[in-house]
Automatic annotation (TrEMBL):
Organism: Flavobacterium profundi
PROSITE patterns in the record: BP_PHYTASE, PROKAR_LIPOPROTEIN
GO molecular function terms noted in the UniProt entry: inositol hexakisphosphate 3-phosphatase activity
Gene3D superfamilies: TolB, C-terminal domain
Protein name: Phytase
InterPro entries: 6-blade_b-propeller_TolB-like, B-propeller_Phytase
Species classification: Bacteria, Pseudomonadati, Bacteroidota, Flavobacteriia, Flavobacteriales
Superkingdom: Bacteria
Residue ranges occupied by any BPP domain in the UniProt entry: 15-338
Amino acid sequence: MKSIFYSILILAVCSCQQNTNIVTLAPDVITETTLNDTDDPAIWVNPKDASQSIIFGTDKETNGGIYAFDLQGKIIEAKTIRHIERPNNVDLTYNFTLTDSTKTDIIAFTEREKNQVRVFSVPDMQPLDGGGFKVFTDATQPDFQAPMGIAIYHAPVSDKVYLIVGRKTGPKENYLYQYELVSNASGVQLHLVRKFGKFSGKKEIEAIAVDNEMGFIYYSDEQHGVRKYYADPEKGNAEISLFGTTDFKSDIEGIAIAKTGTESGYLIISDQQRGLFNVYDRKTNAFITAVNLTTLETDGCDVVTTPLGSAFPKGIFVAMNDAKNFYVYDFGKLEQAILNSIQKK
């Protein structure tokens, strides 16, 4: 099996004609396996002890769940949410204000087979959604109601929290819905604030990522390109740009935003069938390079660039791997691999 594995990687690298000097980086940690099929990770930084941070990852099947892993890749059973009916994508944010003015960190994820999204507190893992919030309820076609991708926009000035939700399939206009998550005397609620987002119709839209500080939403229109919109609903629904249209072999998948400064950093996007990650400049969205992280068929990925203890002094990058697990990388090593790849060009 190992020789077949490496043969696949070599073929993937050789097939990429635009990147003839790709740097390969092995993972520092490989997580324990899930039951079914991993898809998308999100990284929670523990504010009390960053070395005790948690990697959350979806396991998408009818008997699926949101797995919690420590930084050594071990499953934390007490923090794992099971019996979720096909969870697809997951995201998180910090300091969501509850009705009593207390704050909690939260994760949000889609539960496709129930046509809803779920919201849980972190790290105590308590549901805040009364069993789930239905989405796309006004869609007239049943297959347009099944949620898939999700990302959270936490507005830095207003402190409002929004869920941007995509679906398995949908119309060519208004493919995404944006909901505000609010807490009042009736509890936590979800309110639709806008519909937006173009769709090529070629495959589906799954990966969504938000740059809170710069105020942008990015999403992968698979087999077409990466689309960019304003995250603030008041700035309108016009598409800002479409890029990466010729940079991917087929499916454009997970998007991770690595922030190295106020506006500096990288968009790291899975080139799924090629087995690579394309890297773009965070500010200009210009293509920089591609790196080989030895994952197979990567869907989701995530990154934090804050120190997570002595093992990961510059944060971590996490990518789904098609063997029911996730690969974890020291972000300092990944950034150096990106710089080395640039120098080899």
